[in-house]
Write a structure and sequence with these properties.
CATH topology of one domain: hypothetical protein yedk fold
Radius of gyration: 18 Å
CATH architecture of one domain: Alpha-Beta Complex
Strand content: 25-35%
CATH class of one domain: Alpha Beta
Distance between the termini: 48 Å
CATH superfamily of one domain: SOS response associated peptidase-like
Helix content: under 10%
Shape: globular
Number of helices: 3
Number of strands: 9
């Protein structure tokens, strides 16, 4: 994101956007982990942040699942060169009406999957190329930046441990290729 002087800064943010105008508790803001590109500029939940508070969420990769309920296979997807991905995101600063605490929160924008990704899932994060970072952050670039072909991606199946909530969230080993064992 940018500071008041327009410089890029890195700031910790809570996952799941809480709009600045939200009057209820933070956990009552609904599922705002993703903002769909189709409605990000028209939805009351995201419209203001889309215009004024854009960010880039750096990520080493992301997970998607294939298969039927009860038998899901987790996949780790990352940049083919092993570098970071830059997800197009939005941020908000919300003040808890009970405690007065300010919480910075964020969401990523998702788009229809490209041909490669559609083999795994019908949606994907909108990724930015480094040359487009400034245009995204300063608002001079819009949805057209998010619809460009993303950098080359790769994927591999990872451990079923990823299917359990809270397991492996901070364990880098969960992103390693899964190897079946006989015993």
């Amino acid at each position: 994101m940018r500071d008041q002087d327009g410089n890029r800064i890195l700031k910790k943010a809570r996952w799941g956007l809480i709009p600045g105008w939200w009057k209820k508790k933070a956990n009552e803001s609904g599922a705002t982990f993703n903002a769909r590109i189709e409605t990000v500029d028209s939805s009351a939940m995201f419209r203001s942040a889309y215009v004024k508070r854009r960010c880039i969420v750096p990520a080493s990769g992301f997970y998607e699942w294939t298969g039927e309920k009860g038998d899901k296979t987790p996949h780790f997807i990352n940049a083919a060169d092993g570098g970071l991905l830059g997800f197009a995101g939005l941020w908000e600063a919300w003040t808890n009406p009970e405690s007065g605490e300010e919480i910075v929160s964020c969401t990523i924008i998702t788009r229809d999957a490209n041909k490669w990704m559609s083999e795994i899932h019908n949606r994907m994060p909108a990724t930015l190329l480094p040359r487009d970072f400034d245009a995204w952050l300063n608002g001079s670039g819009g949805k057209e930046l998010l619809m460009q072909p993303p950098q080359e991606l790769r994927e591999w199946i990872v451990s079923q441990r990823m299917n359990r909530t809270g397991v492996g969230d901070d364990d880098p080993a969960t992103a390693e290729p899964f190897k079946e064992t006989l015993f």
